[in-house]
Amino acid sequence: MTHVCLTLWLLIASGVTAPAADPPALPPADPIVTIWYRGTPAGTPVQQELAVIRALGFSGITWPASQTKALEGLKTMAASAGLQVLLAPTPKPATPESVLTVGERVDLVVTPQNVAILTPLAWRAIAHGARVIGFDSGSATGAGLENQDRSLRRWVTAARGVARQFSANNKLIQALRPGPGLIMTPESVPGLDVVMLDAGRSWVLIATNISTVAATASVRLPAGAPYAIWADLLDNSSLAMAGEAAGPRWNLKMDANGTRIYIIDKAMK
Questions:
Q1: 83 and 156 together in one domain
Q2: How far is Cα of residue 221 from the mean position of the Cα atoms in its chain?
Q3: 149 and 226: one domain?
Q4: Where are the beta strands (DSSP E) in 189-257?
Q5: Do the domain assignments include residue 106?
Q6: Are 72 and 181 found together in one domain?
Q7: Are 150 and 193 members of one domain?
Q8: β-bridge mates for residue 254, sequence order
Q9: Per-residue pLDDT band at 269 (split at 50, 70, 90)
Q10: 241/259 Cα distance (integer angstroms)
Q11: d(Cα 261, Cα 193) in Å, to the nearest integer?
């Protein structure tokens, strides 16, 4: 799934930065992770439910655009809870393939089959341009956060993890734009996607494995890119690559349903 851009590779063979056109415009809104919320009963917002969503670490909700009757009251309640309100007609379920060409907003509709891949699915979408991630439990009322015994559903843990990174690294995520192309060997590994992004003063690598088996590959970065020490935003681990004349080489080994987000200052060698 990793895209190999040979033309760009030739441009950057002698350095990381290509003499390209102006970078694409950044998304107009701050990056945000939202929870689809439909009220209880449907169409009726409940202050306590909104407070729970905020307490879990989410900064916004997505409300069905068709439910206009209670919209002004919802906005007042959400503001009191510290939540932004986004409106959308219906969720558009994302897949590992569709997130490769997403727009600014993407919905991750939770199913029993995709719970294990929600984290890599979200970060794959971010790597390919998404800045608004909406998690949808599919519940007809409320937000569908809890099981019958009041314990949190499994998908909420994944959603909270993404939301925490958005809160801690909001400016970094907003700054991300397409970076240099990479060369991966073998060229295609089932379930694996690796993207290098430009974050202004830093380079960011987002690698995701949406597969039930581990993935291995050799990833060649452009010549002149720093090779040590990259830091993982998710677990604070570090990565040192092999420094070679053709460009740093990353001997990548990814767990099943794994996610790696490495960052390094452009000035480091």
A1: yes
A2: 21
A3: no
A4: 192-198, 202-209, 215-220, 230-232, 238-239, 249-254
A5: yes
A6: no
A7: no
A8: 215
A9: low
A10: 18
A11: 12
Q: Identify whether 15 is part of a domain.
A: no
Res 2 pLDDT > 60? no
Q: Considering the domain boundaries, does residue 27 fall inside one?
A: no
pTM: 0.87
Helices marked H in 56-103 — which ranges?
71-81
The structure tokens listed for 48 are: 């306590």
How far is 67 from 36, CA to CA, in rounded Å? 13
Confidence of residue 268 (pLDDT cuts 50, 70, 90): low
DSSP secondary structure string, 13-72? TT-S----SPPPPPPSS--EEEEE--TTTTT---HHHHHHHHHTT--EEEEETT--TTHH
Residues sharing a CB contact under 8 Å with residue 245, sequence separation 6 or more, in sequence order? 223
Model confidence pLDDT, tens digit, residues 93-142:
899 999 999 889 999 999 999 999 999 999 999 999 999 999 999 999 99
Q: Which residues 6+ apart lie within 8 Å of 169 measured at CB? A: 233
Helix 71-81 to helix 47-55 angle (10° resolution) is 40
Instruction: List 242's β-bridge partners, or say none.
Output: 249
Domain-terminating residue out of 122, 146, 173: 173
Out of 173, 195, 213, a domain closes at 173
Contact present, 117 and 210 (Cβ < 8 Å) = yes
Rounded Cα gap, residues 61 and 148, in angstroms: 22
Question: What is the residue type of 17?
Answer: T
C-beta neighbour count of 262 within 10 angstroms: 21
